[in-house]
Amino acid sequence: MLRNPALKAVHSFTRRHVTCQVRNYNRRALTTTATFPDLRMETMVQTTTKHGMDVIHDPLLSKGTAFSLSERERLGIRGLVPPRTQEMDKQLQRIIRNLRECRTPLEKFIFMTALQDRNETLFYRLLIDNLEELSQIIYTPTVGEACKRFHSIYRRSRGMYFSSIDRGQMAAMIHNWPHDQVDVIVVTDGSRVLGLGDLGANGMQIPIGKLSLYVAGGGIRPTSILPVVLDVGTNNEELLNDPLYLGMGHRRLDGDEYYAFVEEWVHAIQSRYPNALIQFEDFKYPHAYNLLHKYRDRICCFNDDIQSTSAVALAGVLAALKARGKPINALNEERIVCVGAGSAGVGVCEGIVDCMVEQGKVKSREEAYGKIWMLDQHGLIGNVHLGTADTSKPMPIGIGDRANLDERQLCYLKKDMRDRMNLEEVVKAIKPTVILGLSGSPGVFNEGAIRAMAEGVEKPVVFPLSNPTHQSECTAEQAFHWTDGRAIFASGSPFKDVEYRGKICKVNQINNAMSFPGLGLGITVSRASRVTSKMFMETAITIASMASEDQLKSGVLFPGVGSLREVSKEVAVKVCEIAYEEDLARAQLRQGMSLKEIVEESMWDPEYVPTIRIDGHM
Predict the structure, then answer these.
(1) Which of 15, 31, 218, 546 has the highest count of CB atoms within 10 angstroms of its CB?
(2) Is 577 annotated as a binding residue?
(3) 210 classed as catalytic
(4) Is the CB of residue 232 less than 8 Å from the CB of residue 253?
(5) For residue range 45-87, what is the model confidence (pLDDT) as tens digits?
(6) Residue 435 DSSP class
(7) Is the dihedral of CA 248, 251, 256, 257 positive or negative?
(8) Peptide bond into 141 cis (omega under 30)
(9) Angle between the 88-100 and 105-118 helix axes, to the nearest 10 degrees?
């Protein structure tokens, strides 16, 4: 019998949960108009219907050796764990010692995955306390290798798979997920995983890794996340011919068949989790843009590679303005070269154009496009007629392999420059102040191009943003050596600071993790119904404003990943403000607390709380 009225109320509300949380609502300043309990606030006690080994084997319930004697008695696990109770600090000592014995990053990844599979609270405590180091293990750059070998190192299922054989069944399948509240979903079709291409169902490690950062960096509850793979097949011949590959062994669905598949999945998610934020991740171009265009005004969603990458890259460019003694509203004065014309490259440039237009220092969007020179795998997107008899016409759609350019890419076409100019030729012609790499082509920032850039500007801004590390357009050491140590450098994957002629040259990491956890937290706290472009722009401005003057002078553009929770708080507050300004928020505020206080108290922190067993039939 439940004697605590609060426990009775929560238990009756969670109709099909086996695990429920009891919250103290009385001193909170946030309520929600949604029809489910707000499970984001501080946990007071954890209840479960499970008993014995089922408790020990549930990573959301297990405390390992930290169960108290009274918990062991009432949960039926007395004698099933070592007799001496050891709290989390001792567990962390043991885990860290064993982690240090792992020889390679992939071994550390497997070790961390095993920890997450048996004790999520301890996993996240370890991750949060060592975020700078371990984010590189659970996500980039190590996650790239883990994705390639997913079918070889597979141990235990995590997340959900919706495949081509599940068509017509997805609305029923979604009810197999054991949690009634989901706040954030990360979904991929595995078609463009980092800079590694089509990895099919092996791409599941990307949603898992991203959501781990949502929890560790943004304070989203681990029970409220859902990683998803849409397995529509793969065109990767190596995987198709590998008998151990775990995904569907046919070529990718495409065209109307593909979009109908995604539509069925979206409908299934909306039928059970209509308030969840959906993050589209690692979808290839043009599917990435087409899906974003189709759903952004229908559901609460965004595309990480297009919008989140754009926000952090824009933050880096704005911070680089400040580092050179310029105001952030001088963006229109930059000359920007972008190497990469896929979803990430176009997305980053669209964010920069949006910001230029918002700052009001360009007369039109077309003028803003004129500040950016875009190169694809062939070279500059320019005028194919220059150098021929007819030089007056712009490049028509339908000539050779340029026929594949769409209207978004064509916005960056330079009518006054020859098509397919190489990077060094472009740099010498326009003398850029900023060069962005989103190509996935290692070494494409060659010495000639970077040295030519350094001849034209005092502090060249060099951002090779492709992941993982071996796909980077250049290394930090190369950038500083080729610019005589004058570069302002940021990369997508981590590099160490570089010593050049007795000077320590600072390396920054432009990592999407700086934006999406805070965005997700802000969406969850406000219960925003949509994700808007203004949210991403303000996210960029917020991140760009976080470095001190002394840090900027030393080459540091913004805080590192180790400060992610603090960055996420600031971003979440700004996202909440915009949600209320744009009348998209569905959570109702009461008097007495600021948005910042609400955001801080909404963040989950991994600590053990008392666990009791209840009657599952009540």
Answers:
(1) 218
(2) no
(3) yes
(4) yes
(5) 899 999 999 999 999 999 999 999 999 999 999 999 999 999 9
(6) E
(7) negative
(8) yes
(9) 150
